[in-house]
Specification:
The complex is a heterodimer of chains A (78) and B (367). Chain A is α+β, with helices and mostly antiparallel strands and 78 residues long. Chain A is 24% helix and 41% strand. The mean pLDDT of chain A is 87. Chain B is of the alpha/beta class. The structure holds iron/sulfur cluster (SF4).
């Protein structure tokens, strides 16, 4: 179903955030991170449009690398 | 210990005698394992088994059937995660057998990637009921719960088919023939629900377990951990994904799940009812429950409801009893372009993942 992807928070408006990953921007809900101190510039793991946890930049980068590799493989498929 | 090669070397240096079967229960794990070629990179006596990690594959056939009937006959807009659209139901040849076919026949069926899109579609179409057919494990069902609590329009209804991951593993372990010797626990389910959910594997059944992330490095670290536990006779639940998996998990998400939904006994396609393994909406949200609003479209009792398509061995694939290419139809009648069963449809289905990673021959043909 929908892979979880790390994104960086660009803008916050209540529980709504604008997040970006590799140049693509998306609306993301921060509703599941109530009680977590999240700020613009932070990295979050996003699943089906909802941030499920905060993460470090380093972890975000290694996850992005993984996606690039997988996309390269899947791109050759079917 | 930074790269995958170092971990592989460390695993190869372990004095493992006999065969060890390590099961994963997450489509994302299976995809990383297959794409990185970890099966062939590891010593031959270590077998990696794809277990119950695909919520689309185990979504009850009768729920998919109900979604199709609602789309065709109830005048609703039916929205679902894209994977669900091609899942086939068991109907005679000339009848509509998937949401995709219902759409082609004129029904208003729309793929979505987020519960937020369902809310938006409901807001934009106030004159119609929008039914959100929501299948998924905890990581997907928690956002659906969050959506309900954030507040949804009156015309948004849920056909909820959420499932919990651990009860299927508990069922395998309780069966006496689990088919595996160690467990790699799912990373994002543990991110939300907390790693402690998996303690029963270690404490009650004495099997090593480790939570893993999705990079080959994290997966190999988890495999190394469970192999060492086996060798040294130690048992503990290791956390090889500490970057996201915190003790207790995401408390806000768990609270939201409990506020919106309750855990109930649930049917798994081709497998049967597993106790306390699914989610149902709480009574406060009954007005948003498509099962309550449209009871006439519930035809769970029809012949062949709940089953896999004829010849499809997806249920045994899901439980890790056979490898995907041991199904007689794999790579023959069943390929991603013309899938017979849900395991070849979903991106999280083991058949689909194996095919995408380049395994094109049936195990029978190999022999
Ligand atoms: S190969 Fe196709 S028919 Fe066989 S188990 Fe997988 S999905 Fe079912």
């Amino acid at each position: 179903m929908c892979l979880a992807i790390p994104m960086q928070i660009v803008e916050i408006d209540g529980y709504n955030a604008r997040c970006s990953a590799k140049g693509v921007q998306r609306e993301v809900s921060l509703f599941m991170l109530q009680g977590e101190p999240v700020a613009v510039g932070d990295y979050v793991m996003v699943h089906v449009g909802y941030a499920i946890q905060v993460m470090t930049e380093q972890e975000a980068r290694s996850a992005w690398e993984l996606f690039d590799e997988m996309l390269a493989v899947v791109g050759n498929d079917s | 210990m930074k790269n995958a090669q170092d971990w592989l070397d460390k695993i190869r240096a372990l004095p493992i005698e006999g065969n060890v079967r390590i099961m994963n229960v997450c489509g994302g794990h299976e995809r990383s394992i297959s794409m990185a070629g970890l099966r062939s990179a590891l010593p031959q006596n270590i077998e990696l088994i794809a277990g119950p990690g695909c919520p689309v594959c185990v979504c009850p056939e009768e729920d998919v059937y109900q979604a199709i009937q609602l789309a065709l006959h109830a005048g609703v807009i039916l929205v679902a995660f894209g994977d669900m659209l091609r899942v086939p139901v068991n109907v005679p040849k000339n009848e509509i057998r998937s949401l995709e076919q219902a759409k082609a026949a004129g029904a208003d069926v729309r793929p979505i990637a987020s519960p937020r899109e369902a809310v938006k579609i409901a807001q934009e179409n106030p004159e119609k009921n929008v039914v959100f057919f929501a299948a998924g494990f905890e990581t997907t069902t928690a956002p659906v719960a969050a959506m309900m609590l954030e507040g949804v329009p009156d015309n948004l209804l849920l056909l909820l088919s959420g499932r919990l991951t651990w009860p299927a593993v508990a069922m395998l372990l309780d069966s006496g023939e689990p088919g595996f010797d160690a467990l790699i626990a799912p990373g994002h389910v543990s991110t939300v629900m907390g790693p402690e959910e998996w303690l029963f594997v270690v404490e009650r059944h004495g099997l090593p377990a480790a939570v893993a992330g999705f990079t080959p490095v994290s997966l190999l670290a988890a495999m190394y951990s469970v192999l060492r536990q086996l060798l040294e006779g130690e048992r503990f639940l290791d956390n090889c994904y500490p970057e996201l998996v915190r003790p207790g998990g995401n408390f806000a998400a768990q609270k939201q799940l409990a506020q919106a939904m309750q855990v109930v006994d649930s049917n798994w396609r081709g497998i049967g009812v597993i106790p306390a393994s699914g989610y149902a909406l709480n009574p406060e949200f009954a007005a948003h429950d498509a099962r309550k609003r449209y009871p006439d479209f519930d035809a769970a009792g029809r012949k062949r409801a709940g089953q896999m398509p004829p010849g499809c061995d997806c249920a045994r694939v899901v439980l890790g009893k056979i490898r995907p290419n041991e199904c007689k139809l794999y790579g023959r009648a069943c390929i991603p372009k013309s899938p017979i069963g849900p395991c070849m449809v979903s991106d999280e289905g083991a058949c689909r993942i194996w095919w995408a990673s380049g395994i094109r021959t049936n195990a029978e043909a190999d022999a």
